[in-house]
């Protein structure tokens, strides 16, 4: 029998502060949350006796995640729990209070309303986010990269998400074209001709000072959406002629037009679920 090859992990400890999310009590919280779903079921273990014999082991088992919520992948677990954590944070509650029944209740609609959860992916994560948002009465937007298969697009779209395959849009955006939609707060548009094409470009206006102020205040660890809205009210600062709202703050903070990033950051964000805001 061949000797199993192995190598000791000599990587230094990272001191990653996010590792606490894998603590046993956090794992138990996630398990309790997922067990509250009516679709939850214990998935089977496949016994690989022949492989065990070849490896000189008593038994080898493989967890078959193809049964997970009928989606053929475990990715839905992380996406759905991230939604629960976000909603709990917004409501000032513990994630322990976020059961399936509560998240699909009229009480939650009155207390929280509806959010749009955004992700960029070409696979099972996007489908999991779309599925969870659909079951929990939320919305989802999934951006897929050039080359994504039609079957994956269709699987995500069937879950009720808004799905786009970014190809022309990315190319045009890298050249500075304005990609339609409502002009972001703090900007005006000016006509311009680029590569012989008539389009528009964004130019900052005086309101950009207030947009920057929102970012600066939110960057303070002790600052909350409520603190920002109260400051704007106290100083009689209006947004589009109205009082600043928590929903608008969330929308502004997640709008990529205010962020300067390179492709490395863009690719990294594809693995991160970013709950977007309710519309202003």
Break the fold down into its secondary structure elements and pairings.
Elements (H helix, E strand, L loop, with lengths): L23 H12 L9 E3 L1 H7 L5 E3 L11 H17 L8 H4 L2 H6 L4 E5 L3 H12 L3 E7 L4 H8 L4 E5 L1 H7 L12 E8 L2 E8 L3 H11 L6 H10 L3 E2 L2 E2 L2 H8 L9 H7 L4 E3 L4
Parallel strand pairs: 3-4, 4-5
Antiparallel strand pairs: 1-2, 3-10, 6-7, 8-9
Helix pairs in contact: 3-6, 6-7
Oligomer: single chain
Beta content: 15-25%
| Terminal-residue CA separation | 66 Å
The major pleated sheet works out as: 4 strands, mixed
Total strands: the figure is: 10
What is the general shape? Answer: globular
Poorly predicted sequence stretches spanning 5 or more consecutive residues: 261-280
Name the helicity range.
25-40%
Output the radius of gyration: 23 Å
Mean pLDDT: 81
Number of helix segments? 12
Helix-strand string:
HEHEHHHEHEHEHEEHHEEHHE
The strands making up the biggest β-sheet line up spatially as 5-4-3-10
Q: Based on helices, strands and strand pairing, what is the structural class?
A: alpha/beta
Brief rundown of the structure:
Helix content is 39%, strand content 16%.
